[in-house]
Amino acid sequence: MTPAGREEQLHPLRRAFLAFLSVGLVVASAAGCGAEDTGSGGDGYRISLIVGLKGDDFYGSLACGARQAAKKLGVELDVQGPNKWDAAEQIPILNSVIAARPDAILIAPVDDTALQAPLEQAAAHGITVVLVDTTVKNPSFAVSQVTSDDELAGEKAAEEVIRLTGGTGAVVTINTQPGVSTVAARVRGFEKRLAQEPGIEYVGERFAGDDAAKASSVVTSTLAAHPNLAAVFATNTLTGQGAATGIRNAHKSGEIKLIGFDANPSGVQALRDGSAQGQVVLKPLDIGAEGVEQAVNALSGKPVTKLIRTGSFVATKDNLDDPETQKYLYRESCTGA
Questions:
Q1: Residue 20 lies in a domain
Q2: Helices (DSSP H) in the chain: which residue ranges?
Q3: What residues does the Periplasmic binding protein domain cover (predicted)?
Q4: Which of 41, 88, 105, 306 has a C-alpha 20 to 30 A away from that of 293?
């Protein structure tokens, strides 16, 4: 006898009981789902975060912020990144993530041109893309960009240089390399503010790559050409470390002011020992959290903010131990974040 035939032979009361039980289970199931829903809207989404550099303290803090938001919103998050700042290393990671088909990708592109096509491909596959920290030439495929206001941060660095030098003397910028959106914006803001100071002799921007030895050499050569060198603006960790070495080798620590973009442990130590007089601190913790929130909003049909710019401030030896400063110092682990 077929299953349908067996069901027809059930006693009417038994059929009624089974129907009642079935309805009860549906109601109980719906109630259970409602009890587990915290209103976060996460819905079990899978999100992949691809940072610019694995093991870097800045991106460690960004990942901490992302993890905190993922836990709060009930989404699954995995974090990956290249071993060096190189598009040739980041693109294969991105392609592997695309093949795994997560619901969303958060990524800090290491090159604003080389990552353009691969990210457009991710979006074409229906993956929600949020750009964090850095961007590409045409970010129209991304549902949101969450980044520091690097231009404003550069202006804050210039303000600190002006304060420390009294608005006089020669100033040089040591940058990494062309094609990195964040550091380019920092220099833009720095130069714009510095141009308003007639007493400053701005000798321009020098590229040192991510090479501390080259940054040290820039200080040496600049000092030889401009004995009145009063300040150095370094746009990231390694340029700052190299600049400090160059200043120290010239026996001018403290005399030539160093303003960097390094809230890593090395930059903090430079403030404590007087190798640097100021470090511009960005807020990667906030970038990571906002990135996950915007991805979840896009996936769940909620309003999304197309561009979010997070804040910055200048850390000095005087405010280094303030709780708000400590909160945003970069850490690879989430301790203290």
A1: no
A2: 3-8, 12-36, 57-73, 87-100, 116-124, 150-165, 181-194, 212-225, 237-249, 265-273, 284-299, 323-328
A3: 47-302
A4: 88
**Would strands 229-234 and 169-175 be described as parallel, antiparallel, or unpaired?**
parallel
> Do the Cβ atoms of 138 and 116 come closer than 8 Å?
yes
Rounded Cα gap, residues 127 and 105, in angstroms: 7
Give the tens place of pLDDT for each residue, 5-43: 333 333 433 333 333 333 333 333 333 333 333 334 557
Q: Residues 32-43, buried b or exposed e (16+ Cβ, 10 A)? A: eeeeeeeebbbe
Tell me which amino acid residue 257 is. K
Q: Which DSSP category does 115 fall into?
A: T
Residue 181 has which token pair? Answer: 């959106």
β partners of residue 303:
none
One domain, residues 154 and 276: yes
The pLDDT tens digits of the residues spanning 180-203 come to 888 999 999 999 999 999 999 999
CA 198 to chain centre: 35
* Sequence-distant (≥ 6) Cβ neighbours of residue 187 within 8 angstroms: 154, 173, 175, 205, 235
Domain ranges, residue 111: 46-147+283-310
Contact assessment for residue 219 and residue 247, using Cβ atoms and an 8 Å cutoff: yes
- 250 and 202 inside one domain: yes
Q: Using CA atoms, how far apart are residues 263 and 246, in angstroms rounded to an integer?
A: 20
Q: Measured between alpha carbons, how far is residue 264 from residues 12, 233, 240, 295, 333 in Å?
A: 74, 16, 11, 27, 12
User: CA of 56: how far to CAs of 53, 87, 123, 322, 333, in Å?
Assistant: 6, 16, 27, 23, 10
Helix (H, G, I), strand (E, B) or coil at 245: helix
